[in-house]
Amino acid sequence: xxxxxxxxxxxxxxxxxxxxxxxxxxxxxxxxxxxxxxxxxxxxxxxxxxxxxxxxxxxxxxxxxxxxxxxxxxxxxxxxxxxxxxxxxxxxxxxxxxxxxxxxxxxxxxxxxxxxxxxxxxxxxxxxxxxxxxxxxxxxxxxxxxxxxxxxxxxxxxxxxxxxxxxxxxxxxxxxxxxxxxxxxxxxxxxxxxxxxxxxxxxxxxxxxxxxxxxxxxxxxxxxxxxxxxxxxxxxxxxxxxxxxxxxxxxxxxxxxxxxxxxxxxxxxxxxxxxxxxxxxxxxxxxxxxxxxxxxxxxxxxxxxxxxxxxxxxxxxxxxxxxxxxxxxxxxxxxxxxxxxxxxxxxxxxxxxxx
Length: 355
Description:
By secondary structure, this protein is α/β, with parallel strands linked by helices. It has helices spanning 50-70, 86-89, 96-109, 124-131, 148-167, 184-195, 207-217, 269-276, 284-287, 290-300, 305-313, 315-329, 333-350; strands at residues 2-6, 13-19, 24-32, 38-39, 42-45, 76-83, 114-115, 176-180, 199-203, 220-221, 234-237, 256-257, 280-281.
């Protein structure tokens, strides 16, 4: 494993790794360890170039710092990426085990300052490969496992809180929710909403995922670009980030945005644009914290599932607090969430964190 470190202002460490025999190239970013070891998943994704991958990793790592702080976890924020190379990574000569074991070596090189887990493009079985090289990994099979159902549960609770704030009641029965992305989290969110009596409109780049969600939960499938203007009460972004922007926000018919995707706002100013359009935004890192809460509480703190589930459900109260602060201070909700997270980070810098 060859490693090289680069310096990025505002970040504690950025370390690149490469292993030619494994076909591996990756980067690990530690944004902050003020509240504890940096926790954040490993993303396996195809990028146009290294700069694009680094930009994504930096945004995601910072988001994890704020997510963990706002959730009241004794964890900092980090993220790592394995750069997918379809010419190599899909070849018979390269095993997934070699790829993820190489990544495990990069994680191990950070000596416990960074703990990884599952993310986009990775699975609990991939984490088992990483475990062969380092103990600094969560989301393992037989322990906290797949975080997707827990992330979906947290988003559902955030959506209920948004409904309570906007409509005065958190009952989603009869409401229409447009889900963008029917992967693991989007699918489980669809199940939560279906059981709550909501109507679903869905889309996904993978037509089979859309079909499965429609078949299991009675959803209506629309084209990819049609999801923004879909006649829905709630828009739930559950794919990749940057989808709330100058082009998409004016198309929205929904009055609430609450989803699982990270970095939903293309730029910070788009939080203000949503507010100007009369749309209530549930800040992504507040809404989608269920997965990291589950892994941290069960694997790092030793909590049982019942107590952990209570903390995931408390996302409801966190969102209500954000909405109240935004209304009282006449600011957009994304800024209100940042203020609450930064408040805890400042306190954490002066004392040990408390759950």
